[in-house]
Amino acid sequence: MGSLTGRYFTVMTFGESHGPGLGVVIDGLPAGLPIDLAAIQRDLDRRKPGQSPFATARKEGDRPEILSGLTSGGLTNGSPLAILIRNEDARSQDYAKTAGSFRPGHADWTYFKKYGLPPQPGGGRSSGRETVSRVAAGAVARALLAPLGVSVRAASLSFGPVRAARRDWDFAEGHPLRFLDPDLAQEAEAVVSGAKARGDSVGSSVELKAGGLPAGWGDPVFDKLEANLGRAFFSIGAVRAVEFGQGLALSSMLGSEANDPMGPLGPLSDRHGGVLGGISTGRDLTARLYAKPTPSIALEQDTVSLDGEAVKISVPGRHDPCLAPRLAPVAEAMCLITLADFYLRGPARLGGPAQP
C-alpha cells in the first residue's frame, strides 16, 4: 500500500485510524544518535487532536513507545527504530450510519475500487490519523539534522480568503490556528468558526521554511531535491498543490524579474525557494502547501451506496473544520524525513557534512 519511503533514511508507517494503534519503523539511522522521547512527544503534541475549538474533539495522548533500536542509554544501536502510538479514543460507532455509502471527498470510493473493501471506520489507512506516525519519524529526523544546524518550521498561511500579509513565527506557534499574521488572526478565526457553525469546513494553506541547509544537497534530473520534497508533501492526503519559492508568481514574471542575482557565496535573493537545478543553494528552502477543506462535513451531500443507489449523506463524528493547524507539523515531518535521506546519501560536493 505504498507505506515505505526513503532510500537511506527509510520510513515505513503502519496502523489504522480505528485499530489498536499506529506506528513507524525507521531504518538507516547511524548508531550512537541520542533519541529523546520528550522531544518526540513535543512534536506529536503539536499535531495531536483535541487542543482547540478549531480541531477535532477526539482525545488522544499520542504517547510514543519505543519497541526497538535503542540502547538502555537512549542511543540508537544501528538497528531499525520502531515506535508505536496507541489509539485511545476511537469511536467506530460514529461511522455506522455511513458505512454503506461512499463519503464525498474521501478515499472510500477509490479504496473500494482497488481493494474491494467497504468504507473503513475513520477511513482506515487513508485517515489523517496516519500522519501521527510521520510526525514521530520527523522528530527522529530532526534529532539527526539538528547538530548540522538544519531547522524546519511551518505555520498556517491562509484560511479561505484570509491570507497572511506578514509572518510572525513566534505568534503562530502560540495561536490556536497556528496563523502567521497577528493583524488578521481574528478574521481567520471568524472564517473557520463560521464554517464550523454551518456544519461546513474551509480550505487552508501552510508555509514551510527550512534553514541551515548547506549548498549542494540534491541530485540532478529525476532525483531533484524539490521533486523528492514535492512527492513527500503530496503524500499528505489533503494536499492538492505545492509551490517552492515564489512558485506560481514566477510564471507571470520576466526573466529579469525572476532570476536571483549571484554573489561569491551564491544567490543574493531567494525567489526560487532555496533550490536550483534540483540542488540546494544554501538559502532558506521555502515551500507552500495548499490543502482542500476537510471532506467530513455535517451538511447533507449527494453520494451513492455500495449498491450504486443514489442517497443523501451527512457525516457525523468529530472532525477538523480546517486542516492547516495540524498539517503544519506534518509538513515539517515530511520535509525533515526527506532532508535526512539526502544527508545520509553522503557529503555534498560543495562542502556539505560527511556521512556519519
Beta strands, count: 16
Alpha-carbon Rg, integer: 21 Å
CATH topology: Chorismate synthase, AroC fold
Number of domains: 1
Q: What is the CATH homologous superfamily assignment? A: Chorismate synthase AroC
Beta-sheet strand percentage? 15-25%
Distance from N terminus to C terminus (CA atoms, Å) equals 31 Å
One letter per element, helices H and strands E, the order comes to: EEEHEEHHEEHHEHEHEEEEEEEH
Shape: globular
CATH class, anyone?
Alpha Beta
User: What is the overall pLDDT average?
Assistant: 91
Percentage of helical residues?
Answer: 10-25%
Per CATH, which architecture? 4-Layer Sandwich
Main sheet properties = 5 strands, antiparallel
Widest sheet: strand ordering = 1-2-3-5-4
Global structural class: alpha+beta
What low-confidence regions span 5 or more consecutive residues with pLDDT below 50?
349-356
How many distinct helices? Answer: 8
